[in-house]
Specification:
Elements: H1 2-29, H2 32-54, H3 63-80, H4 89-108, H5 113-133, H6 139-146, H7 150-160, H8 196-215, H9 218-229, H10 234-241, H11 245-271
Length: 272
């Protein structure tokens, strides 16, 4: 058994060494065969990310399409990956692949205008009510503010949940131009090129985001923790909480809307 264990370790080490050689060849010579080998090596990452993203999308969005969008993100990650940085490629690539999928979905804009309009109204209602009440508003108070019933509010949340594919990456905005967004990979420190102002800004944004999450009602906080930190699916979270997947989706959507509203209030203090 000990000999077998060593053999497995040796094979893994040989495989890792081979991958490192392929990386070096590609980065040194831009060899396209090496690039293709890297694409094949890491293609399972695309399937993994596409599966996670598809869990929040309507049935009419094909997973195969998401995979094809993600492949472009993988290629971009391979070409831009810096071997000298102390970051695992898988960590870097997942953010790039997910970003490519989300960008393509946004470009297609499969969400009806009415749903986008309702999302904006909800964000505005949460901002105004939280400023006025100095606490998290209830569903009844939000519905009253929007002059709709609680049932209609639940329907809005269910439809808006299909648009929440960007998760927390959407609310990490660095300020300035519209497309200046902070992805998870951007928060990793580069020990070779530290920019103090950027490090401070990222630290402030992380503190604000942490405070905003802590401000959430307990169930929404649990959904955020289980979904983003523990990697559970909405169905699995529903089993933990003893509610339906649809209800978890609504809780997730409310959490994201509350976070956006909270960060919108806090944003001017970051930019000063």
């Amino acid at each position: 058994m000990k000999t077998s264990s060593l053999t497995v370790k040796d094979k893994k080490k040989e495989k890792q060494t081979e991958i490192e050689k392929i990386w070096a060849l590609f980065k040194d010579t831009n060899d396209q065969d090496a690039r293709d080998k890297l694409i094949l090596q890491y293609s399972p990452l695309v399937k993994y990310v596409a599966g996670r993203v598809s869990a929040n999308l309507p049935p009419n969005v094909e997973k195969a399409d998401l995979i094809s969008y993600g492949i472009f993100g993988l290629i971009d990650a391979i070409e831009k990956y810096d071997l000298t940085r102390n970051i695992k490629f898988e960590t870097y690539a997942i953010a790039r692949v997910k970003g490519a999928i989300i960008d393509e979905l946004r470009a297609l804009d499969w969400v009806p205008r009415s749903v986008r309009h309702h999302s904006r109204l909800l964000e505005k209602a949460y901002v105004e009510l939280e400023n006025k009440l100095r606490r998290v508003p209830t569903d009844e108070e939000v519905a009253e503010e929007l002059e709709i019933t609680v049932t209609e509010l639940q329907s809005w949340l269910t439809k808006i949940s299909y648009t929440s594919v960007a998760a927390l990456e959407d609310v990490w905005i660095s300020g300035g131009e519209k497309d200046e967004k902070l992805s998870l990979i951007d928060t990793v420190e580069d020990v070779n090129a530290v920019n103090p102002s950027e490090v401070f800004e990222v630290s402030e944004m992380k503190n604000i985001l942490a405070s905003a999450i802590d401000y959430l009602p307990e169930r929404e906080k649990i959904v955020v923790a289980l979904y983003y930190y523990e990697g559970l699916t909405l169905r699995e979270i529903g089993e933990v909480l003893g509610v339906t997947e649809s209800r978890v989706s609504q809780l997730h959507t409310k959490a994201i809307i509350r976070l956006k509203a909270k960060l919108r209030i806090a944003k001017p203090s970051v930019s000063n």
